[in-house]
Amino acid sequence: MAELQEVQITEEKPLLPGQTPEVAKTHSVETPYGSVTFTVYGTPKPKRPAILTYHDVGLNYKSCFQSLFQFGDMQEIIQNFVRVHVDAPGMEEGAPVFPVGYQYPSLDQLADMIPCILQYLNFSTIIGIGVGAGAYILSRYALNHQDTVEGLVLINIDPNAKGWMDWAAHKLTGLTSSISEMILGHLFSQEELSRNSELIQKYRNIIARAPNLDNIELYWNSYNNRRDLNLERGGDITLKCPVMLVVGDQAPHEDAVVECNSKLDPTQTSFLKMADSGGQPQLTQPGKLTEAIKYFLQGMGYMASSCMTRLSRSRTASLTSAASIDGSRSRSRTMSQSSESGTLSSGPPGHTMEVSC
């Protein structure tokens, strides 16, 4: 396994007074399934895992996660963790187009590239944050390498293989829609697409005008040919680390995420359904998602309560309200609040948390 490239870049974000630019290092390493590029921010912290992200189809690590990791309140998190942002092969900025006939790795093989990254960096454990295809890849990795994953934040995960009906619908859609439009339908809700907001226009241009669109199509095909994760609550195949499942209201993958929640250990799983967030919560609601991630990390023992912002002011009221809903619920509680309040509530350890915020 050899390093192919290492460059230094400066993260583009507004700096707070007295804050210095954060230096990132981009590396490429060879794996049994080809080269993979990843960017590292920060320095390793003693006795703390790295945060490792994996993006969805049609995006790279910047277009998928930049809004989230540049959000002001997220700085409290990134100061405490080294971050590794993985680009799927051929998705990194400036990536050359793969030659005709190139066999793109399957999602299982993309997951098998992660140990090469961790070995190169000499990192022993991670907390994964994945979106869509990236969430599937991190889940597959966690199933195969349980001892190296301390927690997972999975946005828009679909753990199921495509059925025959889905496959046929996909083929018919491909006859009338371009690859870029099909991917947009995967990323965003139909309501968002019909509104054609500035965000939609931005990402439509990013995908449709991408110089590596042929590469994106290969990643898209691998996603659509994914195997079933075969998750089973109480079975041998399950995610054994703490998991936070996230999906936006009316998102294309809402039903799949709900089904995934039903297959995981309720004592280890939190389910977060975000109102007013559409198909990409990390882009449209970075503040609320940051708050949820802080609580998730706090539950794992990595974030002190003093780091909380809006949540610390609302938690007492939230828990009091939640306690009155149904005291007989032993495994799951649902807490609903106005999206305008900007607050989230946290279920106690050992319970599934279902939140509309």
UniProtKB/TrEMBL annotation:
<keyword id="KW-0524">Neurogenesis</keyword>
<protein>
    <recommendedName>
        <fullName>Protein NDRG2</fullName>
    </recommendedName>
</protein>
<keyword id="KW-0217">Developmental protein</keyword>
<dbReference type="GO" id="GO:0030426">
    <property type="term" value="C:growth cone"/>
</dbReference>
<dbReference type="Pfam" id="PF03096">
    <property type="entry name" value="Ndr"/>
</dbReference>
<keyword id="KW-0879">Wnt signaling pathway</keyword>
<keyword id="KW-0221">Differentiation</keyword>
<comment type="function">
    <text>Contributes to the regulation of the Wnt signaling pathway. Down-regulates CTNNB1-mediated transcriptional activation of target genes. May be involved in neuron differentiation.</text>
</comment>
<dbReference type="GO" id="GO:0030154">
    <property type="term" value="P:cell differentiation"/>
</dbReference>
<keyword id="KW-0963">Cytoplasm</keyword>
<comment type="function">
    <text>Contributes to the regulation of the Wnt signaling pathway. Down-regulates CTNNB1-mediated transcriptional activation of target genes, such as CCND1, and may thereby act as tumor suppressor. May be involved in dendritic cell and neuron differentiation.</text>
</comment>
<dbReference type="GO" id="GO:0005737">
    <property type="term" value="C:cytoplasm"/>
</dbReference>
<dbReference type="GO" id="GO:0007399">
    <property type="term" value="P:nervous system development"/>
</dbReference>
<comment type="similarity">
    <text>Belongs to the NDRG family.</text>
</comment>
<feature type="compositionally biased region" description="Low complexity">
    <location>
        <begin position="333"/>
        <end position="346"/>
    </location>
</feature>
<feature type="region of interest" description="Disordered">
    <location>
        <begin position="319"/>
        <end position="357"/>
    </location>
</feature>
<dbReference type="GO" id="GO:0016055">
    <property type="term" value="P:Wnt signaling pathway"/>
</dbReference>
<dbReference type="InterPro" id="IPR029058">
    <property type="entry name" value="AB_hydrolase_fold"/>
</dbReference>
<dbReference type="InterPro" id="IPR004142">
    <property type="entry name" value="NDRG"/>
</dbReference>
